[in-house]
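Note to self: the last two entries modelled the partners one at a time, which told us nothing about the interface. This time every component goes in together.
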Amino acid sequence: MGQDNGSTFTTQKRSSGGGSALPTTNGRAAGAAARTMIPRGRQIHKTFNNIKITILCGFVTILVLRGTIGIGNLSSSEADAVNQNLIEETNRVLAEIRSDKDPDDPADSTDEPQFLSLNDTYTLGPKIVGWDQQRKVWLSQNPEFPSSVNGKPRILLLTGSPPNPCDNPIGDHYLLKAVKNKIDYCRIHGIEIVYNMAHLDKELAGYWAKLPMIRRLMLSHPEVEWIWWMDSDAMFTDMVFEVPLSKYSNHNLVIHGYPDLLFEQKSWIALNTGSFLFRNCQWSLDLLDTWAPMGPKGPIREEAGKVLTANLKGRPAFEADDQSALIYLLLSQKEKWMDKVYVENQYYLHGYWLGLVERYEEMIEKYHPGLGDERWPFVTHFVGCKPCGSYGDYPVEQCLKSMERAFNFADNQVLKFYGFGHRGLLSPKIKRIANETATPLEYMDQVDIRRPVHGDESSGSSETKS
Amino acid sequence: MLEKCIGQQRVRRIQRAARQAKITFLCLFMTVVVMRGMLGAGKFGTPAQDLDDLTTHFYAARKHGEPHRVLVEAQPENENGSENDPKNYATFDFNKILKDEGGEEEKPDPNKPYTLGPKISDWDEQRGEWLKRNPNFPNFIRENKPRVLLVTGSSPKPCENPVGDHYLLKSIKNKIDYCRLHGIEIFYNMALLDAEMAGFWAKLPLIRKLLLSHPEVEFLWWMDSDAMFTDMAFELPWERYKDVNLVMHGWNEMVYDQKNWIGLNTGSFLLRNNQWALDLLDAWAPMGPKGKIRDEAGKILTRELKGRPVFEADDQSAMVYLLATQRDTWGNKVYLESGYYLHGYWGILVDKYEEMIENYHPGFGDHRWPLVTHFVGCKPCGKFGDYPVEKCLKQMDRAFNFGDNQVLQIYGFTHKSLASRRVKRVRNETGNPLEAKDDLGLMHPAFKAVKVSTSS
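The predicted structure of the combined assembly is written out below.
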């Protein structure tokens, strides 16, 4: 060992650049010079030693290099590892947020969920009778919560979306824009908004979720005269037009549709439940009770779907949806309900987007807000686009561009009041259309859409003057 | 040479000792190097970090794995053929949608100092006349109840963070609920009115425009998009503010004595609609225009205010500076409210929600049940926040549910827990719905009642 040490030591000294004049160097040289005189055994020994030293040095070099630079994937650097962890952690958090899993689901949630069987009867709640009378009494006892404000009946706009993030982020962005659009319209017209993000009844999930919520709001808010349901994919595109409620003083349900499609053709798209108004009264509660039974998830909804497809024209085969169910209900019990249902098509209480959005520029040129019909649609409804899901019925680019155009078309009517407008129907940037002055109220009086200043220029709506 | 001095035996012994010493040192050196390579040496770092430092030093342009760029859209595994599916939202690039038409931006005249708009000096008179001519739009809804407009907003472009828009949506729903219960109108802004005042300064031109366009509004309430209402029953004490024009959360000592840059918060404040407010906005704005002015102003603010880090001028620091240096002009009409959380920093509130539910009830608005929980620094819409993503988003969910529970209980429901999206029934339905009263009295609250007039 001592000899090895000596040999190693000698070699290390040489490799570390030890050019100092030490006796050992001479010794090595002397050894080299004297090699021919050394016996063979010793020579082999020396060779062995050299090899050992080489291997040892090689091993140490590799160790040091590995510590310094690493050997590719075998060892990544610390900073990368930290970064990788951060990315994985964040993606995990985002995936958790976007999934449907809930921390409060029971641990055995992998079991089959309990569905109502075909024999069970489903109810929205305890049967209410005499609601009209109850409501009247309440209103007389609570004069500070009247059912009309400034001469206009109180309306509550109900809309909503699922509580979890959309399958893709664009969906949430358009939900946000749609709710801004509704906030704008409702602020101008004094309507209150309820934005629902809770599934009140796990049986009636999906498009049926509006039924329990409508009933709940009616019963909790007797001061509300009309409840207006609007889908999250529908936007107001006429900010001046008002629903002519005086036209409906003898009706309890106002819904957009076509009577001939309904009665003659029995088409499944004869009416649209994306935007409709329900009066707060006993009749409405009864209709909701009659409407709900096709809704409960599971075998009931499936079977009901088959019945609807068999009876309504053009309906594809899928589970029961609220729109088909309402059409079927109104057709099969026509005498009971239809006299109080107003099927409206004089203006676009619901306006199917295809065919409308391309014409916005033409409308801007030829017409003006306040008409509500095909010249300047009241509501543009993006049926089938489904931006909150993963797949829609139409090409994504077409849908999103159209939604952006509709949003900006409506937003222009709001911004005009402040002297601004979008640079183009697809542009998020705005430009000034009226210069700032030191007397802003003069300009405002001319463009304020809440108060018809010049009586003849007011819209075609029959707004009751307060 | 040494041989002659000491003798050969001795020399050899010394040589051997020297050899062994050298071996020892060499081995020691080897050990240290290897250990450092394996375990690191504290702040001196590992050779790997040395290498990183070297590379970053020499290749400064190339960024080595930004630690913050974590919020990348996770692209789903595309099945074959779905990459070009035009109906698939997941593979769509949103940048194809927005088009910036009608190019030229109005370039501001660099020689003219920045103004928010033409100077108005008689706003009180103009407004008074308008209110007289329009009795249907009174500025007071009831005795002691002014007409309030809540203003908030966000960018017209989608958030960089894939769940950012979802949290903006929840935040606006939360505000819709509070404002519906309290009879307040909402203006949600998505337009940049003045390109020079971008970022946090964008609220100034917007506020001025809204004040001038809505003379019927008595108070304008600005609220950041990352602030949520967590006390649905608390009504602002309007009588307390009848003689002031600006209400912000903050402390007098911290603003006027310490000049602390977080002595007040401009994430949630009330501004009365009058001439004083217009003058204040004009005095506040000059530090805002982006570019050189904002950077230079930032340096002044960092120098003058306590605890302010170095960055461009922000509206909050500018307000602290304005009040601290011009107290005589503005101070008597400014109320720094600390009696309740007109702005509540989320860091000290969110962990205590369960405790609050157990011990207190809504209506306090203060530390017992905060009115507003403000997620300062979370920036859920952007990719980089000051706090870890998980903490921010999870706590925003909790705050949202905490507030939402107070709304749902009106209808007999509540969230299953503060972290859960699911709701459960807590009050059974009866055949006499009008007899049901919610615990908080929010179904028909007094602050929503309309004036009972003799004419219907």
